[in-house]
Amino acid sequence: MSERPEGTDQVAPGRGAETEFLVENDDALAALVNMIAVIGDNVYFLGRRVSEWADAGPLLESTAACAAITQDKLGQSRAIYPLLEELPWPNPPTGLQGEVDRARRYSVSFLDDPLPSWASVVAALALVGPAVNVVLESVENSRYEALARRAHRILDEERLTSAYAESLVRQICYEERGRRLFQERVDALLPEMLCWFGPDGEEGIEALKAEGLASMGNEEMRQRYLDRIVPLLKESGIEVPVERNEERWEYGELPWSEWNQLQRRLERSGRQ
């Protein structure tokens, strides 16, 4: 969340004339636009991918839940995307209503294509959803009040979805075959989600913190995310290359050489 979104090499002169919200730091404004695009695209594509299972879940309960989650996620993206137009930034990424509306995606690559199995759906809900929620928690008290209000509302909606995702993890891991399939999906997705928060001390995130636009740094978000997902995964019999010492989670080397910092994704395929 530190590079400038597409078509944004400079901030237009006189920015702020059309809005009461001002950010004098160009790097912070660029990072804010990028963060909003990242949040919007991830909830949008998560909703789209879950929608493709709304009539194919393994149980009647799961098909109904997928339909409800889809409605929530697409509604959240529709709430987030207009902020891109409200900020004083030229040529921001456009909000999505269809997958082909914009060539550049700011979502994790795990969501690029339809999810091929129910284990992939569970992995997306259990790993992508909590990551987005951590970022929303970081901006819930942002001085950009329009974003803070939306973050608060989305987090309130997410309580039921988070509880449901946790129940899905326990259900799929109850039997050995389901646990093995889910393990494969976790192995594919977790490195990308750990990278997703960015390298520690990333300039864009530091600028957001300095301007009062976000409250957590990269590593603080990553550690909070691990606090949220690792106990559930280990309790469910899933092996994760993460260990807790007295102060923090240790997770080893991450694949930064494959990391696209602007789009917050790994540039490789075949991981679902």
Description of the structure:
The structure is a single chain. The protein is built from eight helices and four strands. The chain has one domain (26-94, 107-266): Up-down Bundle (Ferritin). With 272 residues, it is mostly helical.
In terms of topology, how is this protein built?
Elements: H1 26-51, H2 60-80, H3 82-86, H4 118-139, H5 145-172, H6 176-196, H7 203-210, H8 218-235, E1 243-244, E2 249-250, E3 259-260, E4 265-266
Antiparallel strand pairs: 1-2, 3-4
Helix pairs in contact: 1-2, 1-4, 1-7, 2-5, 4-5, 4-6, 4-8
Q: Count the strands?
A: 4
Largest sheet: 2 strands, antiparallel
Overall spatial form: globular
How many domains make up the 3D coordinates? 1
**Overall pLDDT level:** 90
Percentage of residues in DSSP E strands: under 5%
The gist of it:
The chain is mainly α. It has helices at about 25-50, 60-80, 80-85, 120-140, 145-170, 175-195, 205-210, 220-235, and strands at about 245, 250, 260, 265.
